[in-house]
Amino acid sequence: MSTIEEAPPSGRTEAPKGERIADWADGRLGIYNFGFLARKVFPEHWSFMFGEIALYSFIILILTGTWLTLFFEPSMAETVYHGSYVPLQGIPMSKAYASTIDISFEVRGGLFIRQLHHWSALTMIGALCLHTLRHFLTGSFRKPREVNWLIGFVILVLVILEGFVGYSLPDDLLSGTGLRIAEGVTLAIPVVGTYATMFLFGGEYPGQDVVPRFYSLHILLIPGIMLALTVIHLILVFYHKHTQFRGPGRTENNVVGQPLMPHYTAKAGGFFFLVSGVLALTAGIAQINPVWTYGPYRSDQISQGSQPDWYMGFLEGALRAFPAWEWTVPGGYTVNFGVLIPAVILPTLMMLVLALWPFLEAWVTGDKDEHHLLDRPRDHPTRTAFGCAFVALYLVLLFGGANDILAERFHLSLNQITYAVRIGFFLVPALTYVITKRICLGLQLRDRDKLLHGRETGKIRRLPHGEFVEVHEPLDRGQEYALLSREVRETAPAPAAEHDGVPNPRARKEILRHRLSRWLNSGQIPHPTPQEMQQARAHLDHAPDGHASPNGHLDTARPGALQPGREPDQELH
């Protein structure tokens, strides 16, 4: 006879309220089917935080921007200021500028929110630049993430454009100067420049429509596209799984890390509040964009020492460094190459190279495999050197955009600084490329030496005959595996010009691919052969007692290395 009795219906306890809410949501949204997301694993590395910083800054931008729209008036209609800021009393200005002054001085907490919004924008752009650089140097853009690389690149371009548009909304003298430059750059574009200028400004510069049109772009169109692309970007990160650096237990088919719930979520939540706190602290103590000191924009004035935000500094530097070339082409049209080349062609080429690099590298190497393990920057010297040269070019132009400030602060000649920027435009990236590549190859040699001779311990041991040598220890299996798992790509073979007397129809294309492959892959340090590794292990395990290894390093793989009766060893730590 069974001893289990079923409780009467009246005696059953009701499900907890949380469970009932979850059941209600599951019946309509199917949330129980997404339980696998809670076990989604994310690896850990400090460089992965750049993307999180950009995402959290974007959230703060949305929140602060929504608050600012309640008080900002996007109108270029003229008004006379009669607010609390005495130096501007009675001065004609646009309503956009007047509302910005009112937000700063009349609205409680308005100045703090303005500065928090601005600092968040600068932080987001900086974090996205570092995030993109990290992806480039580690090769995470390879298959199957080429599309996600393009999405991230478009987000970066849109964020820079969004920052410039938002920077122009207050209609102060500094932002108006930047708008004047933007209008000149737009006009320099052949054929479509005048039409694009009419679309942006609604007529002759400055017109009455630029601020309302930029306002619509700033709060609606560009953020909407950015938000949609960010969601797609994160979905693809989940779908492709997160990349990770090489190490024990890490393969192309797994991810080693912590699950989304609760570990990663708790750490990400804490990091969000940390980023928010740092931005709030910066906004509270560091003044930025004090528009009341610049005054309202007037087309016949310009502020001395005017500088754009740092992300647009390279464009300013290119314009200042390039000669003032202006040619008249057949047909009577004037082309201003002094603006077209540095402000249109050069940035376009830089963006195209950055956007299309994954496809170029895949074509040159012929690599069609999926990659979920990351390279260390030293593992791909040419790619790393090219990326650092790209950054060096950007920095040279950035300093060129501040040539007047540098000349004033350091009592230098403005012309000498300009010529230095022109020379540095060609010289600094080339030197950076050569030096970076040599450093990467040197680090590869050092890794090879560690595999064959062990690592330096920092301990000095005295031999019986009085010689002092540094003690080396063999690497552990995890470190050894990480160093040996580095990919060493081979250069593509040179194509044959003809076969059986028939010319190769693809000879030019294959020759170009061979030369690019030789540039991209040549010079890498090969791994030690299995025989060399076996000899290295045997030497560390069975070196003669009391004698140094052939490379001058004492073997300390086993204790008691000295013969009895000899002078005791002396170790210096």
How many helical elements? 18
Q: Over all CA atoms, what is the radius of gyration?
A: 31 Å
Under CATH, the topology of the domain at 50-314 can be stated as Cytochrome Bc1 Complex, Chain C
The CATH homologous superfamily of the domain at 50-314 is named Cytochrome Bc1 Complex, Chain C
Poorly predicted sequence stretches spanning 5 or more consecutive residues: 543-573
**CATH architect. name of the domain at 50-314:** Up-down Bundle
In which range does the helix fraction lie?
A: 55-70%
In terms of structural class, how would the helical and strand content be classed?
alpha+beta
Residue-averaged pLDDT: 86
Number of strands: 14
The major β-sheet equals: 4 strands, mixed
Basic shape? globular
Strands of the biggest beta sheet: in what spatial order? 13-10-9-14
Q: Beta-sheet strand percentage?
A: 5-15%
Region (Disordered): 521-573
InterPro entries: Cyt_b/b6_N, Cytb/b6-like_sf, Di-haem_cyt_TM
GO molecular function: metal ion binding; oxidoreductase activity; quinol-cytochrome-c reductase activity
Enzyme class: translocase
